[in-house]
Write a structure and sequence with these properties.
single chain; 459 residues; alpha/beta; Aminopeptidase; Aminopeptidase i, Domain 2; 2 domains; nine-stranded mixed β-sheet; six-stranded antiparallel β-sheet; 12 helices; 22 strands; globular
């Protein structure tokens, strides 16, 4: 007869079941991960980091027609903002591939194409927010500026200000509490508008007192002296304002990580590091670090583009395998974060189906909203396969759900992979304060996500 403990399901805190050695491994992993967060403040920088790491581990750029024997390591970038990496397996691609797909874009403030203006002898940049943000969270915090400017002659200039020691930072002002009587009567969306997120960038004049736009003139001179750009060059620029500062340990016990962009760079780093450690998997392993997820995965660098099919078609042609025959035997872990249960806001979650910090990787059978709208809703067989796989590889994991049924919801790249005929399920790191300028994760959960993705690659 079955014992009580065999009949009941109970989630366990990973600190209660892991060895001290594995906890130390998780903390060591977190140190590497924080370095990635500091280096990868934008999708371009994340891809640049991935290329550098991949080439150090023997990956080479893929070119059409190149011979690919088992163990070959190749990568392909898409406009410098997305990357696909593959380690060719011992089995034919007709047996499918094992995929981890994460995204490296994050909510932020983009500069408008004509951003610079002066008002009452203060200079500002106009912004257009990217992705789902709470606008009030972006005022009165230090901001850094990263991106590229393409000059009139076609040369590309990298811009990075605000994250190096000694750099200035930027700032969006707010009303003082002594004068916010009218502001306090408004809803948050009325009090903080997109057009009001203007970044303060200067106050010192240049030129004679009789001249106009002297503050703007000083800003333009400084930009020209440092980067050789003029105001017209903003027309062909991609400049992103992101929170300034480095990733930090959180808590007296240093058990958590606080940083910008952990949605979804916590999963992106896990997927990257796991594939870099592979040598000769049974099935071909593919890592996808995509762009544009936060705005619907559209565009040439998003998961809905043909870039992934093109890459996989090329790989399949080297083995005379039809692409869709490969897809129907493939598996994809849509590696994206989920929300962690927050007792300060317990009313939006249902406890028994919410992910908790320190309980491991969160697996979501479905995402979407309300009646599972916009979700691929993985099958019971897929969840069962993961249960067995994670048990085999010692992965701590938990089932998760994105809030109460009628509360809201969200999406990932899972449905775009599933629409290609690839068996897909969502799983990732539980996050507190998701989409805030500073997000919180557990070191153990980040490490378990890496272990889970490596298990998927290995099969």
């Amino acid at each position: 007869m079955a014992e009580r403990d065999d009949l009941f399901y109970k989630k366990k805190n990973a600190f209660d079941v892991l060895s001290e050695d594995e906890i130390n491994s998780a903390y060591d992993y977190a140190t590497e991960y924080k370095t990635f967060l500091d280096e990868a403040k934008t999708e371009r920088k994340a891809v640049k980091f991935a290329v550098k790491m991949a080439e150090e581990r023997g990956f080479v750029p893929y070119t059409a027609g190149m011979a690919l024997s088992p163990g070959a390591k190749v990568y392909k970038t898409v406009e410098g903002k997305a990357i696909m990496l593959a380690v060719i397996g011992n089995k034919s691609l007709s047996e499918g591939v094992n995929i981890a797909a994460a995204h490296v874009d994050a909510p932020r403030l983009d500069l408008k194409q004509v951003p610079l203006f002066e008002d009452t002898e203060l200079a500002y940049f106009k912004t257009h927010y990217y992705g789902g943000i709470k606008k009030y969270q972006w005022v009165t915090i230090p901001l850094a500026l990263h991106g590229v400017v393409v000059r009139r002659d076609g040369t590309v200039v990298d811009v990075s200000i605000g994250d190096m020691e000694g750099d200035p930072v930027f700032y969006i002002t707010d009303l003082l509490p002594h004068l916010d009587k009218d502001q306090a009567k408004k809803t948050l969306s009325e009090a903080f508008t997109g057009e009001g997120l203007n970044i303060l960038i200067g106050s010192r004049p240049y030129g004679e007192e009789k001249d106009s736009d002297r503050i703007k003139h000083m800003v333009l001179r400084l930009l020209y002296d440092r980067y050789g750009i003029v105001e017209e060059d903003f027309l062909s620029a991609e400049l992103e304002a992101v929170p300034a500062g480095r990733a930090r340990d959180v808590g007296l016990d240093r058990s958590m990580i606080g940083a910008y962009g952990q949605d979804d760079r916590s999963c992106a780093f896990a997927a990257l590091r796991a594939i870099l450690e592979l040598e000769s998997p049974e099935k071909t392993a593919v890592c996808i670090l995509t762009d544009k997820e936060e705005i619907g995965s559209d565009g040439v660098t998003g998961m809905q583009s043909a870039a992934f099919e093109t890459f996989m078609s090329d790989l399949c042609r080297t083995q005379d395998v039809h692409l869709h025959h490969c897809f129907e035997k493939s598996f994809c872990l849509s590696a994206d974060v989920c929300n962690a249960f927050d007792p300060n806001y317990a009313e939006v979650s249902e406890k028994s189906n919410s992910a908790k910090l320190n309980y491991g990787l969160g697996v979501l059978k479905f995402t979407g909203s309300r009646g599972k709208s916009g979700s691929s809703d993985a099958s019971a067989e897929t969840v069962g396969m993961l249960r067995a796989l994670f048990e085999k590889h010692g992965v701590r994991w938990q089932m998760a759900e994105l809030g109460k049924v009628d509360q809201g919801g969200g999406g990932t790249v899972a449905k775009y992979m599933a629409n290609r005929g690839i068996t897909t399920i969502d799983a990732g790191v539980p996050v507190l304060s998701m989409h805030a300028p500073y997000e919180i994760t557990s070191k153990l959960d980040c490490y378990m996500t890496y272990k889970a993705i490596k298990a998927v690659y290995c099969g």
